[in-house]
Amino acid sequence: MLDAVVSLFSDVAANVLTDGQQYGKFGSGHPDLVPYQAFPAKDGYCIVACLTNAFWKRLCAALGREDLLADPRFATNDLRVQHRTAIVPILSDVFRTRDCADWIALLEAHDIPACRVNTLQEILAHPQIEANAAVVERRDDRRGRIRTLAPPVKLSATPTGVARLAPALGEHTAEVLREFGLTDAELGELRAAKVI
Hints:
This protein has 196 residues and is α+β, with helices and mostly antiparallel strands. Among the domains are: 28-117, formyl-coa transferase, domain 3 (2-Layer Sandwich); 119-154, no CATH class. The protein has helices at 2-7, 10-19, 53-63, 67-70, 77-82, 84-95, 100-109, 120-124, 127-131, 173-179, 184-192, and strands at 36-41, 44-49, 114-117, 135-140, 144-149. A three-stranded antiparallel β-sheet has the order 1-2-3. It has a two-stranded antiparallel sheet with strand order 4-5. A hairpin with a 3-residue loop joins β4 and β5.
């Protein structure tokens, strides 16, 4: 799992490993691309990803903010990175004016990558999660319905799954102690003494 998470930083890691680049905190934004981050909308957050200047130009046109194209601080991606603290608040103010769905529809119509930032509840209820069988449901006599994540790796020759739920506290105590040679009488004494 650690390797999978670290691999998400492959482009940033390359800069650290080859050039010794040092990054500070950059929140939801990308350290080398601006704008490429989550922006607040009326009803949540949406991600806007301008990978190149072509996307930046289309974004300014879509937002009706062509004036930003004339600002020398924002002429190139490198300059936008240098002036991140100036451009991000401007864009944030614009994105706060409408709902995520409105922004995503507008940006997609202008061929600008965008998506909604979902809450964990929204993610777990997403149809693709259901299609992937990423959440499994089991029944427990005491606890009722239990829903949990399925193993993330699915292999055809060696399938994985949730065969049983985690045991309740003390559920297998007697079984384990019998394996160590304790008799039913000894277990009864331990129970009476409230040791188990």
